[in-house]
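Problem statement: downstream parser choked on a complex file, so we are re-checking the raw output for the S-adenosylmethionine run. The parser issue turned out to be on our end (a line-ending mismatch), but while we're here, posting the original submission so the record is complete.
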Amino acid sequence: MRLQKILAFSVLAGALSAQQVTPPGAQPAPVNTQPTGEKLAPYYPTPETIVERMLELGELKSGEKMFDLGSGDGRIVIMAARKYHADATGVELDPDLVQSSAAKIKQLGLQKTAHIIHGDILKQNYSSANLITVYLLPESNIKVRPVLDATLKKGARIVAHDFEIGGWTPIKTVTIPDDGEGRSHTLFLYIH
Ligand SMILES: C[S@@+](CC[C@H](N)C(=O)[O-])C[C@H]1O[C@@H](n2cnc3c(N)ncnc32)[C@H](O)[C@@H]1O
């Protein structure tokens, strides 16, 4: 099942990356301002229904600070700010995704509570976080773990989608057999 998920993730992410993600009219950022970093996973978005389940599992509360590590089109950050009234930040390496998610945040008038950092997940400080969400590959979660260990405060919650954070023990695991489109999902909750 785990291998199937990794294969499905890679195949579908490949198909998605071939699609246009830059909104019409958006300009690519100048080349010399691009942050560098290792690509820890391809873009493969979490379905909206599962985003909600992740934020529920993480018990996100109004005013809390959350980070989505590899924020893609910003859907987790946007729901965290819009529905849960959290202070939400996404970290994303891909300039097109940064631009399209920032444009969506602006369009929704969420600039005060939703932010996208154009940068590398492995180079951020998460010490202010109450909740971290992550949807990366298993080997990437292992690379992210020391950064979280080094910066997270005690009691911070982490919700991982589909792939565990190796070396940590989840306090709760939730399986969603069908997201409405025939795909199963597993969510892991950790407390730092
Ligand atoms: C599987 S997608 C998840 C997107 C979003 N979190 C969601 O669940 O819908 C992983 C994202 O991580 C981004 N990413 C990969 N490596 C990264 C890195 N080193 N720093 C920042 N973002 C990265 C990818 O560009 C991609 O958008």
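For whoever reads this later: The chain has one domain: 48-191.
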